[in-house]
Every structure is written in structure tokens, then in C-alpha cells.
Amino acid sequence: MAAFGSFALLIALALAAYNLLAGAFALRLIATGQPARISPERLADTARRAGIAGFLAISAAAFALIWSVFANDFSITYIMEHSNRALPGAYKFSALWSGQEGSLLLWAWLLGIYGFVLRLTHKKDVKLYAYAGTILAGIQVFFLLVLNFAAPPFALLKGAIPDDGNGLNPLLQYPEMVIHPPMLYLGYVGFSVPFCFALGALMMRYPGEKWIKVTRVWTLVTWLFLTAGIFLGMHWAYAVLGWGGYWGWDPVENASFMPWLTGTAFLHSVMMQEKKGMMKSWNVWLIFSTFLLTLLGTLLTRAGLVSSVHAFAQSSIGTWFMVFMGIVLAVCIFTFILQHSHLKSEQHMESLVSRESSFLFNNLVLLTACFVILWGTLFPILSEYVVGNKVTVGAPFYNRVAIPIGLFLLFLTGVGPLLPWRNTSLKSIRRNFVLPVVALWATVIACFAVGVNPWRNGAFSSGDFYAIVAFAVSAAVMTAILSEFLRGAGVIARQTGRNLFVATWLLTRRNTRRYGGYIIHIGVVIVVVGLAGAAFNQNQESELALNDKLIIGPYTLVQVGATQDSNDNYNSEYAMLDVYRDGKKQFQMTPEKRVYLASNQPQTMVAIHSTPEWDLYVVYEGTNPDTSQPIIKAYLNPLVGWIWAGLVILVFGTFVALVPSLTPATAALRVPATRPAPTEPALKGGL
Amino acid sequence: MATPLRFRFWFRTMQGESGTAPGALSFPRLLRKGWDSSNLPSRTGTASFWFKSAQALLLAVAVCFSLGANDSSARYHDLNHRLMCTCGCSQLLGECNHVGCTESGQELAELRTDIASGMSDKDIFSAFSAKYGATVLAAPSTHGFDLVAWIAPFAVFGAALLGTILLIRRWAGIAGAKAQAAALEPPIDDPADRERKEQIRRETGSDGGF
């Protein structure tokens, strides 16, 4: 199977190279109109078909690796290092992305899937798709070169073949790890597609903004995958790492967040290009940057340039990525300079306070946030280079710098949709902003009334201060969005006589993009409220003998037993804790600690009891070697459930935005010239 | 003091402890000059009222932010979240949860001892840096080259914000001139023509000869 996989990868490389070269040659012939012995259109089509065949070849390689994992073929180094016989079936799949070589194969495979769909749907716009497919083949060639020559997944083990493998990293043996990496990779890899369309459209001086419409679904779906991937990663970190948090500003987390920020900026500013013909150069560079950031993230974390808790994916392929990034950047700059005149804006902004300018400010804040994260991630390298002194840039830095920026962005989320296009009058500002401002101050007063204030216990707490600001701005944004829904629904309710709920549904169906966007914003607000809850986290740690108690918030945890269990994959020991509230037993929690047999690595399995108010999060830290008593650490994390609920709303909103709007059906009606034309409502059907 | 660095800086500055040169307009001097209306340029009574109100508000906020009693457990929590565990786990000292971690227990004990002995935050950080290296601090310091880490994000944001405002103002000027020119041309009254023109613009990037 190793030979089959290696051969499939070589075939895939040959096909991708043909796709790139033949496609580029054919497009060159078409662009210059030079006579040739072969029809350029037919040559371009052979390139397209080679791309489809390439996908099949990569799929064969991916199949070979998965087969080898299930067949426990420990003659392959990768399988020996990342799997073992007792590994459950679902985790054998995740062995595909648990190491460097496998994750690169996954990347190439997903790129192949995207390319396959793209090439199958080429009839939408043959020439534009030919450009995009050829550029995509260029990216595929790079990944296949790396897979064939720098990080081969089918490399054979030297020496004697062991009976069993080293096993999968215990951190990855968790159900979400079967979903999180593919989601994240679908997001990462997916941004290659809008990048290819943008670069292709620029190369061929594609007329108008139609290419944006073509790529809109690609971009939105990709963004959705990346968003879901990031949140699943947060949940995995929360449920597995056992430190009570979900985001640690680790370089790998930052690497996934940066393209999300620029991708989000692109999704917003591209509307300006579509509607007004503005910000063309800006949008092109946003999508170029997003793609480059996906590569930079991979470079940073895999080349070992920055230290990360995600050390399982480090290697020495940094040079390959650096060279490829250099080539991509050079191609982008060259094409941009060559075709710059094609990107001239057709209209200009007319006012500092308008919907257009709010998009621009939104982009500015998103990009500043991206810069802050990039800066924080790279500063240790810069510091070492400049003053020879390596420093740590951790959570305290990001919390101080990124949180204010994030809150400003949240503020813009509420303000932007309330501003009219082109220009804003004082009267409209007053009309649209009264309710949100009232909601903002009411929330501040409510926070103080329930005892949340930055001067708790006599000392100023910046966390509490930011939490109050976050709650207040969230309330204002939510009010602004809901009033937008109500305003539109009210008009429809009056026109159609339907109730407000049906009217809201109709309103959303009529402009799914706009109202889907608002639903996404509601999801973001819910997420922010959940994040702000972190300011009020509590934790307690105690060694608990039988019937000992640990009190945290309103809960009392009583140790009623500690026991052990084992299976082929791991040995586990866990504590049984009865949880009381107001003197009544509520439920039992069983935090666990496992030791995986193949790798001999320990791993905590956190017990979480989630409510909308807070999560009771309990970690079994092991036993005290002197007393043999279990050590329990309990956290009370307010509002964490809101983060995951916000994600669900966000995903729902994205689906709504992807659904085509309900347009009034129109019917042609022949009208004799002598008769007066009927009025407009008679010509239009639907609602 | 468990207050964040920024506010402690404000507080020290207000007490005149900063290293501001004698001639420079330090924050306390600015406040004093502000209150003495003879030092200020003449302005209307209303403007003066608002200026003084703003100063009073600023002062009140600054004082409130710098208030605080020494709560040793809060300070311990604050400090252990500003230091890193040195075992290689890349986690904050207060969040390192490795069973049997050989480093975090020792570091936390040292931190407790340092707090109990009355050392200032700065001295504690210096002691940890000297013993474990600069990477033990979870964020760059505010001295030397490290200061660049803190300044750059705000400088970039400020510059970008200013640039954006100037750009929009320039564009608004161009748009105004175009609108004036357009006013001289005959308007397209037919909505169908207008829609056709918009469609042509979207699909071809030109105005289709309209």
C-alpha cells in the first residue's frame, strides 16, 4: 500500500504540473490570439481534465494512508508514529492529520476536492474558471512537491518493523478532534479558491463585478468552515486541556484567527465593490492577504519559528513555505502593478458618516486586529533578531491590546447597519441611535445595580471594566439589530396583514444576504457576552479525602469515591464527586485522568456541567504522592455556554445568507398599444 | 497595588513620579495649568466650563482607576497570570495544570514568598527575569526595545485611522465635484434606463455609453 500511495502522489504531481503548464499556455494563446497547432480551448480543456484526474490520484493516496492506518501497517514511519493497534476506529481516521505529513496530504486532498468542484462547474464562465483552475493547479503543485520530496507520508521505516505503533497523541483522542482539524483545513484551503478567482479575474481583466458573485458562495462557505473550525478548536481546548480556558493566544490559534479576520474584512468590503464599484484594489489585496496568511500561519507553526503548545506538527519544511510565499507574493504584486488601471473605483465616498465609511472603518479595525496578532506572534522573533533577547508575548499583551480593538469592532457592528448609504443626516442619526444608546446605559446601570463594577473589593479590575463595556455595547448592538428587523417587519406586516413573526420571516426571505448578515451579527454579540463572562471566573483547588468538601460559588462538591478502570488503549482513574446546591444533591461528576498505554502519556478528561448561567468545570489532577488522596481543581466559568450558542446562531445566519433571496416573480404581459398599461403591482406576482 | 500597569502609570504620573523633563508639560502640570485659567488661552465661558468639566471627569476617572487596597490573594492571582511556567508548556504560571510539573510549584512558592516579603511588582518581575530569563514574563516589559511591542499596535491603528479619515474627506471632495458636474448633464428619468445602466455597470464595469 505504501508503494501505491507514493505512486499515486507522483501521478498527482505530474497531472497537477500538466494542468498548470498546459492551462497557462492555453490561456496565453487565448489572451494573445497567436495561431497554434492545437486549439487553445481544447488544450485548456485537457488541462481541466488533468485537474480532475489529479483529484482522483490524491484521493487514492489519502485512501492508501487511511487503509494503512486501519491495517496497522507499521512499516510506514508515519503510521508507526501516529497510530497503534488498540486505537479506536474513529481516531484512526484522525491519524491522517495528527502529524506533519498526513496533515499536508489532507491539505492537498481538500484542495483537490475544491478543485474538482470548481472544474466540474466550469460552464458558469469557462474562461474565468480556466484561469482559476490553472492558478489552483499551481498551488496544488507546491503541496504535491512538498509531499513527494520534503514530507513523504509513505516513507518506510528503517530497521525492524515493531509489533505496535507509538499511538496517537492523547490530546487528539477526543471526539472533536475528528471534526475540528478537517473543518479548520476546509477553511484554510478554501480561501485558495476566492484567491484564485481574484487573481484570475485580475490577470484577464475580467469586466465588471460578476466574478465576485461567482466567488461569493465559495468565500462564505469557506469562512463558515474556518469559523466553525476555530470554535471547535476552542471547545476542544476547553474540554481537553483542562486549564479552564478556551483561548490561550497560542501562535497556532493566532495563525487560524488572522486569515479569519482578513476574510471577514473581505466579506464586508466586497459588498462595496458589488454595490458601488468601490474598493477594488483593497478587496483584491484583502483576498491575497488572506491566502498568504493561511500560508504564513502554516509556516510559523510548522517551521518551529515560534514556540507553541501545538508542537506535534513542527518540522523543517519552513523553507519550502517561505519560498512559495515569496513566489505567490511576487506574482500578486506583478499582476497588480500590470493590471492596476483595471481596478479604478467608479464611485467615491461622499461622507465620513455613511454606510460606506462604516465598511471602511470596519475593515480598518479588523485589519488592525490582524496586525496586532501578527505583531504579537512575530515580536519574539523580532526581539531576538534586534536585541538578541527572546521575550514572551502571551495573553496579558493580547488582552490589553486586542480587547479594546475588539470592543470597538463590536461597536461598529451595531453602528454600521444603522447608517444610510451615501450620507447621513443628524435627524436620521438621532432616530436610529436613541434606542441603542438607551439600551447601552440601561445595561451599565443594571451591571452596577447587580454589583458588577470595576472597583470590586476595593481594587480596580480591568477585566470587570471590559466586561461591563462588552455587556453594554452588546446590548446596544442587539437593540440596533432587532430594531432593524422590527422596522422592516412592521412595514411588511402593515402591507400584508400578516403577524410580526411571519412578517420577519418574509423580510428575511426577501433579502437573505442582509438579514442573514444581521443574524450572524446577533451570533457575534452572543459570543462576546460569553467571552466577557471570563472576567468573573472563579477556581478552587483542594486535596479531597473521602467525604471532604470543596465549595465553589453556590456548589459544594463532596468526594464520595475514587476508582480505576482500564482497557486496551488506556488506564484511567477518576474521582466521583456529588454536587450539592442549597443543601440538595443535584448531580454527580466524574473527572478522569488517563494514561495511554502506547505512548505512556497522561491526559485529563474534564467533567463539565453546563448551564446558561455558568459551567461547573472539574479537573482531576491526580493523587498526592504523599497522601494518595485525589487533587481536585474546580472552576466556575460564567456564560461559557453562550459562546457555543453564539456559534450555532452564527452558523444559522451564514446558511440564511447563502440561501438565494425570494424575488417577486415577474410575468411578461402583452399589452396592446392602444390600451393603457396596467399598474406595476398587476405585473408583479409574489409578495 | 493590584491595578494594571497602565493605570498605575497614570497614578504615578499624577503624583509627579515620572521622569518628565522640567520644562515638559507633564500630566499633573497640565492639570494644574488647566485649573489656572490665567495660563490658558482666552476662551468663552461655556467652552471654559466644558474644558474644566472634562478635566474634572478625567481626574475623577484617573483617581477611581488608581484606587485600591492591597489584596494579597488578588495580587497573587494577578501576578501569576503575568508570569509563564518555565516547564516548556507555554502556559501562564497560574494556569499550568500539568500533573507533577516540576517548575510551576516552585515558581508559585517563590512568588508567594516574594509577595509576603513586601517586594514590589517590578522587583518580583526583575527577580524572576534574573533567575529564569526574560521569557518568564508573559508580556514584554515597558522598557527599551520591548516598549515597541506596546506602542506599535496603537501607532498603526492611529495612523490607519487618520489616513482613512483623510482619504474619505478627499474622496468626499472628488464625489462632490462629480456631483456638481453631473448636475449639468440631463438626468436619466426613466427608472428602467437607470436599472439598465446599473446592470451594465455591474456586469461590464463600464457605463455602456449612457
Molecular structure report:
- The complex is a heterodimer of chains A (687) and B (210).
- Chain A starts with a helix and ends with a helix.
- In chain A, strand 2 and strand 3 (555-566) form a beta hairpin.
- Chain A folds into 4 domains: 1-171, no CATH class; 174-344, Four Helix Bundle (Hemerythrin (Met), subunit A) (Up-down Bundle), CATH 1.20.120; 423-535 and 649-658, no CATH class; 536-641.
- Chain A is built from 20 helices and 10 strands.
- Mean pLDDT of chain A is 86; it is low at 677-687.
- Helix content of chain A is 60%, strand content 11%.
- Chain A has helices at 2-32, 40-70, 77-82, 89-94, 100-120, 126-150, 180-190, 192-203, 210-240, 251-276, 280-302, 318-339, 355-387, 395-415, 426-449, 462-496, 500-510, 512-532, 640-658, 680-683, and strands at residues 538-543, 549-552, 555-566, 570-581, 584-589, 592-596, 601-605, 607-610, 614-623, 630-638.
- Chain A is α+β, with helices and mostly antiparallel strands and 687 residues long.
- With 210 residues, chain B is mostly helical.
- Chain B has 3 domains: 5-66, no CATH class; 72-136, Helicase, Ruva Protein, domain 3, CATH 1.10.8; 146-204.
- The longest helix of chain B is centred in the C-terminal third of the chain and has 39 residues, at 146-184.
- In chain B, 18% of the residues are buried.
- Chains A and B meet through helix 13, helix 14 and strand 9 of A and helix 3, helix 7 and helix 8 of B.
The total beta strand count of chain A reads: 10
Number of strands of chain B: 0
Radius of gyration of chain B: 29 Å
* Low-confidence regions of chain B: 1-43, 61-70, 206-210
Mean pLDDT of chain B: 66
Number of domains of chain A: 4
Describe the largest sheet of chain A: 6 strands, antiparallel
- Which CATH class of the largest domain in chain B? Mainly Alpha
Give me the secondary-structure category of chain A: alpha+beta
Strand content of chain B: under 5%
Helix content estimate of chain B = 55-70%
Estimated share of beta-strand residues of chain A? 5-15%
The secondary-structure element order of chain A is: HHHHHHHHHHHHHHHHHHEEEEEEEEEEHH
Tally of domains of chain B? 3
